[in-house]
Write a structure and sequence with these properties.
Elements (H helix, E strand, L loop, with lengths): L1 E3 L2 E3 L4 H7 L2 H8 L1 H7 L4 H7 L7 E5 L5 H9 L4 E6 L2 H13 L5 E5 L12 E7 L8 H10 L1 E12 L6 H10 L21 H10 L2 E14 L4 H12 L8 H17 L1 E2 L2 E15 L11
Parallel strand pairs: 3-4, 3-6, 4-5, 6-7
Antiparallel strand pairs: 1-2, 7-10, 8-10, 9-10
């Protein structure tokens, strides 16, 4: 184990801690509304898939600024929610929002869900909205999460499909990399697209002790800003690192290219790009029984 900033993390997750508990996490915390609005249309099907009951004990994996955890808390008034994340800045934002909303059944912890000692059978449901794809060892992570679930405990995850299926990614990369090679991490490596392949998802979850695995495609428009200027400023904050290596003229051209894309996607509901996700559900498997997976 590695302990950094008083957080116990697995060695494979130290880089994730450095990123999320640093500038990256601080940016997300400062722009929580943007990120929540971007995936807002996916929230109802994710919550429906979790099959929540009023007394459920729920774990939110990679909870960020707590939007999903707070929505869940309102749906389990006699239950409880624990949100875990590596970003202290995002967790602070989550706590402030929960206090403003008068929610007393939700707790936020800075923790690495791959190794945190939750206690056996502590939860009935585990959920994650695009926050479960950054583990260094996903099998170990989901085995740990599974051990924290009660027998037949439920899992509901929202993850991104492949980059080629996500217009928002294609537009940003196409503009900001300006024809340079797209950095493609090895399949399954930590990152937003780590669970883009359903067969990989099933392999990971089976190995971690889950059954009744279902993977369903969802597509929704995704808002990136209220208007063009808003969208350009937001995307520069998220993906401005892609401009590294360009000279001043190259940077200006890349930004202008994205601006034109944003103008082409401006609607009454903001600047909207297409997106595609997988909605994944599973149950903690009974070691003594066989289970069939679906797709």
């Amino acid at each position: 184990m590695v302990i950094t900033s008083a957080v116990e993390v697995h060695p494979s997750n130290t880089e994730q801690l450095r990123a999320w508990d640093g500038e990256e996490g601080a940016f997300w915390a400062a722009h929580a509304g943007y990120f929540d609005r971007a995936v807002a249309r996916y929230q109802p099907p994710l919550l429906e898939a979790a099959e929540l009951s009023p007394g459920d004990r729920v774990l939110d994996i990679g909870c960020g600024t707590g939007g999903t955890a707070r929505d869940v808390a309102r749906r389990v008034p006699a239950g409880s929610v624990v949100g875990v994340d590596l970003s202290s800045a995002m967790l602070d934002a989550a706590r402030r929002a929960a206090t403003r909303e008068g929610l007393t059944n939700v707790l936020f912890l800075q923790a690495d869900a791959q190794v945190h000692r939750f206690g056996a059978g502590s939860f009935d449901v585990a959920v994650s909205r695009t926050g479960c794809t950054f583990f260094g060892d996903p099998v170990a992570a989901f085995a740990n999460i599974g051990a924290a679930l009660a027998p037949a405990g439920r899992l509901a995850l929202l993850v991104w499909q492949a980059p080629s299926r996500n217009e928002w990614f294609q537009q940003i990369v196409g503009a900001f990399l300006a024809g340079r090679p797209v950095p493609v991490p090895p399949p399954g490596s930590p990152g937003p697209f780590a669970f883009a392949e359903p067969d990989h998802v099933r392999t990971v979850l089976r190995a971690a002790g889950f059954g009744e695995i279902r993977v369903r495609p969802l597509t929704e428009p995704e808002e990136f800003g209220r208007d063009v200027d808003d969208a350009v400023a937001f995307v520069l904050g998220v993906a401005g690192w892609m401009l590294e290596g360009l000279d001043e003229d190259g940077r200006a051209h890349a930004v202008e290219t994205f601006r034109r894309a944003a103008e082409a996607h401006a609607t009454e509901d903001g600047v909207v790009f297409g997106s595609a996700t997988w909605l994944i559900t599973a149950r903690r498997a009974d070691p003594g029984a066989s289970s069939a997976d679906g797709s």
